[in-house]
């Protein structure tokens, strides 16, 4: 942007007359890092323009051709009739202006080729003076449901430069609704990679937004944004996402409405009536997958209360969740649930003394079954309890196969898969033990629609050693290896999910803060989608992703991040790649464990 040719600028430089805005110039936004909204704000942050579901926009060509100088305060009206005011705080005598991206000698940026850009002002032969490193404040005449744009600071980098952008959201009483802080990279690639900052709400409450960069990270640079996308109609709710807080002082489920574009909007927090165990002295929390289970008809949600040794049943309603039952898990410290037809099985295991209530603890554990009634209530299934392969096995998950004729349990400490055939009466057989073979420390599992079993191989958190294996089940309940432990090239490969069409599987690399994707062949062979480094999506080094869940249509994947108290949403692309589109935060730390969605 600073290398614009004087001849080009002089030839097309104009000044446009725009209506003066009465909005007060904004001061520089604080650099407080947050991805959360205060309680009751009911906003979700958007990382991809498609998730906004916009029905209106402001293209900055509305104020004039490229290199049109604009006042520090001006107003425009969108094609859809949305009136808004723009305020850029004056730091220097260099005016803001509009430019259009393109190959040099036009400004090359990380925006898309041909984008019209609003720029706060920088070094330019036609506008002599100092650069203007100021935030961009946009105020709406009438509050909107959603808004967003891509941001990039000006820079003199020869190729790329990292930065941290901030995005603040206010209501009409100028109350801060939330702040999103996100990293980005400035470049001259013209590849539409500039970071998108957006927000969405179920009510029209967004009255003001502020785009800025963190000067402590990015330096004092002017900034630029491309077209502003606007949502002026109420978003369509298509599903929900639920996260288990696992708090020792009282267990809760955080609920989020999911829009048809994959965005998440907070919908309340609901007590399970029981207790969690927090993160534990070893920092592993529940150390399991399946702590939350949603009934197939989406009417009931089942949650483990590892600190009070029981299971909660909550009814899903239009106004949220309502607790209808708490029932003993039949053991100590329930950590995982699986549901098929009229049967629910729970995996009980106390990894540490003090978790799961008072006493010496139970490191033997086992599974116990329940009958599920049409109204969601549970009743203990007599004579259904079975042991694991050994005491101290440190299991990670219990799961039914698709037909409900087999139960499988991953055992980390013993590196085996323990299975049970299930009779027509719902009762399991004695435990059947299959070694994990090529993997060690098997953490979690997922069956595809044909009964193929995928297991994550954590390798006891050994650096860059994580992987995943696939197995076929024999009629007698034993498992045989199909695809040996295929490395993710990352650390602590723990949680796993499979797409509904059986084409792709995704795993968390919890200690490295990323997700690996695999392709899955019809005969069960796994192959990394990104063989160079194994990474399909990055959650971040300070996130610790602990669970995964798909929307019911498998178009969106969500990850629960226990270290940052966030949930990230990704669009699942046709080639298996993931594009981050949304995030919510503010979840209690650090014991988060359990995610369900539809």
UniProtKB/TrEMBL annotation:
It comes from the Bacteria. Pfam families: Lactonase. Keywords: Signal. Residues 1-23 form the signal peptide. The keyword Signal applies. The keyword Transferase does not apply. InterPro entries: Host-pathogen_enzymatic-act (IPR051200), Lactonase_7-beta_prop (IPR019405), WD40/YVTN_repeat-like_dom_sf (IPR015943). This is 3-carboxymuconate cyclase.
